[in-house]
Write a structure and sequence with these properties.
CATH class of one domain: Alpha Beta
Distance between the termini: 26 Å
CATH superfamily of one domain: NAD(P)-binding Rossmann-like Domain
Strand content: 15-25%
Shape: globular
CATH topology of one domain: Rossmann fold
Structural class: alpha/beta
Amino acid sequence: MHTSLLNHPSRRSFLKHSAAALAAPFVAPLILAKSVAGANAKLNLAWVGFGNQGGGDLGACAGGNNIVALCDCDQNILDRGKQNFPGAKLYTDFRKMLAEMGDKIDGVGVGTPDHTHFAVAYMAMSMGKHVFVEKPLVHTLWQARTLRELAAKKDLVTQMGNQGHASEGALLIKEWYQAGLIGNVKEVIVWTDRPKSGWGFNGNVMTAYPKAEAPPKGMDWNLWLGPSTQKVGFSPAFSPTTWRPWWEFGCGGLGDIGCHTIDTPYWAMDLGAPESVEVEMHGDVNPIHTPNGSVVTFNFPARGNKPPVKVKWYEGPSLPAAPAGYDGAAPGGEGGMIMVGENGGIFHGGMRPDSPVLYPKAKWEAYRASGDKQVPKTIPRTQGIHRDWVEAIRNGKKSCSDFSYSAPLTEAILLGTLAIRTGKTVKWNAEKLEIIGNPEAAKLINPEAREGWRPKDLV
């Protein structure tokens, strides 16, 4: 396994002190952060990357708070931000922002492309700042472990932006499963139209980096590249919205949508770390760009008296066949999920669990007619992923998708991307942070970042 010498001491220390916890990543102590403001006080927030999804996150967290600093490597985006938040100080480099404004900031939002999530979050968290980070949480397995450790060490409120996790549908699915409505589950089927189509994808599989072009006026391309060691110039094939299919910057369709669609069954069943991840390639293995049509199988071990579970992920245009006993709409559209139980199952369409139902249809109709015999709502409801983070900071509470949960989920997702990137099975030792029998994937656990973007440069 390849490990940066600069990063190795932190990882070795982490494994020494946390091996027992990492053997079962889904089990985490309840760590309550200290309130920094009080229930009604305004927080001082800064945001890094807010041109697209990050802008939506910023807007959702801004209400009732002070936006004191905004950072983006594109001056055009900064100019728009200044119109909406005239009191915010503007920066193109988050490192300068945090160095100058650190004592004036309570929390930092991160809406940059995947490959720069870690650097921003790591520096902010090292300074004791609460963080909201878009999904997928990070770009590599080592980064996921490191942020999880740091969040616990610093006693911080953290949140990954997998919005569906805070939805009513996700809570209902977990409550239905825990109440035994469908019995034991041994198989989960999930699918997406990405990367064949969908936001940020056009279905074109690239085998070489595009020819460099002049970046738009006001854009700092060197800052956009961040930790990347690839010497590639600006191209509209990367920015502003089409970076996800490129392994150097994004995590493909699985990294994009898996944090939504796989999240719900993963959470409902406390799946933890997979023992192995298999892949069926419907295109050539591609070292720089995600192919179309891969099928990935996550093999999760038994948990107590619960049986092992296979989670089978289909990327566009591949689609699964309906399982035995399922009589709903055929799998299709932008995505969906089917939990296959002993006694029927649970289905939702779309990338998020907005409208889950039981199947077969007769089971669903009977449940809907059962009135006060329906499963009670035992899980606390929130006002959504964004306000949940804000209120957790104000009140010193645990957020719903904090890094003790979302980092292990991200690990599982990233293992699937490594199976696709190498075209080979990934056998995983969660306790030791090791991949067995796939040296190509092992090299990607913690690839080298360029100077100025390594952990030692960010503290």
